[in-house]
Design brief:
Elements lengths: L4 H16 L30 E4 L13 H6 L5 E3 L17 H19 L4 E6 L1 H4 L1 H7 L6 E7 L21 H8 L1 H4 L6 H7 L9 E6 L19 E5 H4 L9 H4 L2 H11 L15
Parallel strand pairs: 1-2, 1-3, 3-4, 4-5, 5-6
Helix pairs in contact: 1-6, 3-5
């Protein structure tokens, strides 16, 4: 018996939502209370660039970073986050609009941060779609001149198969068209999509930007996890389990709660003062 295609769409969306963004804790409009999004913050000599955090699909700029933003603030960074890819009428769940449009939102927000901090460049840390989408900004919207480093936690740099779920979309007439029309931020992330082909044509990286990709072998959303890695002359691809074999983080935890991943991200932001990332980094 064939499942109705709308059930497949619901399954596709639910699988992504459950894996990428747990239930909102504070709400998109709640003001962070741990010192980030302070536009009076001035980067220090030790950390001379602001950090822009880019959330994942079905998330927002507050809830995705309730742990990591204070982690960076406590280490002396000026930290900023924002919402992007909200569909009309939505104020809580982002990352669903066309990714090219989301990249333009990142461009506008980055300009705002640069103006407020009186600096020439920022560093970007993104989770899931938020680790991949900035590459469009760097490659097509002039972002390479304004970004020093891109640190990506579990990014779908070459799309995802969702453990094979996307491969059965053609067997459900209308499903792909429905997703494309109503949830373009999802279809743009499917491996082999027109967006992914455009993004990756001519190489994964652009000159002048330092790239770090942090992945987990237990990722159940961006699959295969090996497709997260980038190729290029200034790329550092890291698998968490090579740093700490006991780390069981999957796609959600690597961006929301994993201090081992956070430590490695902080190393990428400040390589001159990096320290080894180990299982003990969970206590950092």
């Amino acid at each position: 018996m064939r499942l109705p295609w709308k059930r497949l769409v619901a399954t596709f969306s639910l699988a992504t939502a459950l894996a990428i963004a747990p239930a909102a804790v504070a709400g998109a409009n709640s003001a962070p209370t741990s010192g980030w999004n302070d536009f009076s913050c001035h980067p220090s000599a030790q950390h001379p660039r602001a950090v822009v955090l880019v959330h994942g699909t079905f998330a927002n700029g507050t809830d995705n970073w309730l742990d990591f933003a204070p982690y960076l603030v406590a280490r002396g960074y000026c930290v900023f986050s924002f919402d992007y890819g909200m569909l009309p009428g939505e104020s809580l769940i982002g990352g669903l609009g066309p990714i090219a449009d989301s990249a333009r939102q990142l461009s506008d927000f980055t300009d705002r941060v640069l103006a407020a901090t009186h600096t020439a460049k920022v560093d970007i840390v993104g989770h899931s779609q938020g680790g991949m989408m900035p590459r469009y900004y760097l490659k097509f919207l002039g972002g390479a001149a304004k970004v020093n480093a891109l640190v990506a936690l579990a990014p779908d740099n070459h799309g995802t198969t969702l453990d094979g779920l996307t491969a059965i979309l053609p067997y459900f007439p209308g499903a792909a068209d429905f997703l494309r029309s109503n949830l373009p931020g999802l279809t743009d992330q499917v491996a082999g999509s027109a967006f992914q082909q455009q993004l990756n044509a001519g190489g994964d990286t652009v000159p002048g930007v330092h790239y770090t990709v942090i992945s987990t072998v237990y990722d159940e959303v961006v699959t295969p996890y090996t497709t997260q890695a980038l190729s290029g002359p200034d790329v550092h691809n890291v698998v968490l389990q090579n740093l700490c074999p006991a780390d069981l983080s999957e796609h959600v935890a690597i961006g929301l709660t994993d201090h081992i991943a956070f430590h490695e991200a902080a190393n990428a932001l400040d390589p001159a003062h990096a320290s080894p990332t180990t299982c003990l980094s969970v206590f950092g």
